[in-house]
Glutamate dehydrogenase, NADP-specific (anaerobic digester metagenome), 448 residues
Amino acid sequence: MKAAEQVIGDVMEQVRKRNPNEPEFHQAVLEVLESLEPVIERHPEFVETGILERIVEPERQLIFRVPWIDDNGRVQVNRGFRVQFNSAIGPYKGGLRFHPSVNLGIIKFLGFEQTLKNSLTGLPIGGGKGGSDFDPKGKSDFEVMRFCQSFMTELYRYVGADVDVPAGDIGVGAREVGYLYGQYKRLTTLYHGVFTGKGLSYGGSLGRTQATGYGLLYFLEEMLKDYDQSLKGKTAVISGSGNVAIYAAEKAQQLGALVVAMSDSNGYIYDPDGIKLDTIKQIKEVERKRIKVYREHHPSAQYHEGSKGIWTVKCDLALPCATQNEIDEESARILVANGVTAVGEGANMPSTPEAIKVFQNNKILFTPAKASNAGGVATSALEMTQNSMRLAWTFEEVDAKLKDIMVRIYRQTSKVAKEYGFEGDLVKGANIAGFLKVADAMMAQGIV
Ligand code: NDP
Ligand code: 2IT
């Protein structure tokens, strides 16, 4: 039989060959496969049944035309995607991203990550992801609505409460989910939980809006306890100013940290007295303006052009909550030189492999996205549960369940890392723990 290293190398080569020009997908797969060597050594049956070859190949990939008419009466055409990656442990589950950078490789990296993340939640949800290269920025509400209706007019055939349940991601929030859900209902006449992140008046769950950001901080809090530390008095820098970043900042503040910088894709603000979140919410959630506007409300804050510069701000905690590969090796080195003690990933794959090496070589506490940002999708699964039960839990009930899930993910991730000889390495722990459950379910279900 081939050695584990050889098996992994061969699968990776096949992934590169079969999926050319998809660097983000290669990056996500490589990081996971590299963690699995000791697993493959212990489980030759995974090799015999082609688990690795199967887990890197999406079950189904949909690409479709999304035509819509803009406010000037002109026809616009975007591309829609839904990648149904793995349904071994439950219906496909994962968000939709609307951003001009979206392409198949990005959706596949997100779908692959989602499969292992959803496994870590301990809940019965498989992995999927979708989206479009549509840019909601600068579009009117009616344009966004027409786009969403056209997108759903194609996608509705492939989703369903027990089939595939989309949600939000970059560029898809409450407004978009509402329009998408409305069109789904109109086309199918079904009123069921086909989306999560729905509005509270039509089946959404209390706590879902806050879940990813809050969950990240619950995870960090639990990790810091293991090192006799807490969030109290720590200075935090949080990239992004969208859904994840805002509620990460809110919980960080509640737990006693001082958040001094936040960003958007144009630049970052630095407010040494602490970011005023009410202002950020007003600018981002209500007015949909640029973060630069913050200075008009708080003239003592600084604004700097360029989003990368945020990592030059001195901090104890760095929480990347914007997008993939936003912390490169150079930024990681600057953070370390400035005394960062922990890095908590809120976005998906925000640190490059080189950046992760810098953190690990310098003994910085590091929480990988698929474990520490799993609170969003976990709470989506709680929304699905409430929809099935025709019940609505209180905010406190949902929040307590979320906290419990994040604590359990941290405990399991760190336990599995130790069991496999990588004590303290949560990257390895999350990859192995997430993989094992999916692999086990795939083994049980035969070669499908
Ligand atoms: P939002 O659209 O609400 O916010 C995204 C934020 O990141 C904005 O501030 C945006 O700035 C910034 N951003 C987006 N793309 C880029 C880019 N290419 N360069 C620099 N900044 C960028 O999205 P979310 O907060 O929902 O998502 C943020 C991250 O968290 C993503 O990686 C997502 O996959 C991940 N995530 C989201 C979950 C959720 O429940 N929403 C759950 C788990 C992970 P601008 O406005 O200028 O574009
Ligand atoms: O990356 C993610 O986990 C999300 N965007 C949330 C997915 C979901 O189905 O709630």
